[in-house]
Amino acid sequence: MKIAVVTDSTSYIPKHIREDLHIHMIPLCVVINSETYREEVDISAADFYEEVRNGTKLPTTTQPPIGEFEALYSKLAKEYDAIISIHLSSGISGTFQGAVAAGDMTENAKVFAYDSEISCMPQGFYVLEAAVMAKAGKTPEEIIARLDELKASMRAYFMVDDLTHLQRGGRLSSAQAIIGSLLNIKPLLHFENKVIVPFEKIRTRKKAMKRVADLLGEDVEKGHRLQATIIHANRVQDAAEWKAELEQLYPTVDFNISYFGPVIGTHLGEGAMGLGWTIRL
Question: Where would one find the signal peptide in this protein (predicted)?
Fold first, then answer.
């Protein structure tokens, strides 16, 4: 059985890795000053943050039209027997629902739409695992079961520099944003029931990063083999330094560095940092 793996742009898997593993990607879009850009296609993360810094209006985002899913699935159905389509959390975007709807209309190949219930490289962990398993000849059912195993151990925490984006998106009230900014509070966020919610309120960025590192350490102490990703919003040097620190603390963990691209960066803002991890199976 030939299985195709599809994801959306918010998994932020580098293009060369997608090409090596034959991963197909459907982009979400970001709208800046009335111009629409497909992330990972028309605009890079670095260019996005530069545009936002120099612009007067905060950007907005849009999910892919169902027609784009239909067109890709129909094309893949000519070559593949099944399609596993893995997307960002249905609690923050309608992208997954679009994949489900398009899958129901696809002939000659069965579409398995999968809600990662998360985003960014933690979402990418599912995609990479599915691609490796598909290449190894595993069945769709075996792949989905493995993704569910990953989900049971998936953790991800984010902190932001600027509360404005969270306030505009309804994550914080205006009063919370004003008070938080004055007190230098760094909300620690995570996904719960498919949506982004506050985990803890911490006074400084340094303390927030230490708290996340301690949470990772709790899982390391359980004896699991873990893979982890450091995620940054245009903070390359900070991410590299944090990676070096974490590798010293937890040498058994396989770390990489990823980023918050335009769509997720729209909601978190430049300077955001995150850490996500799951078991290595």
Answer: none
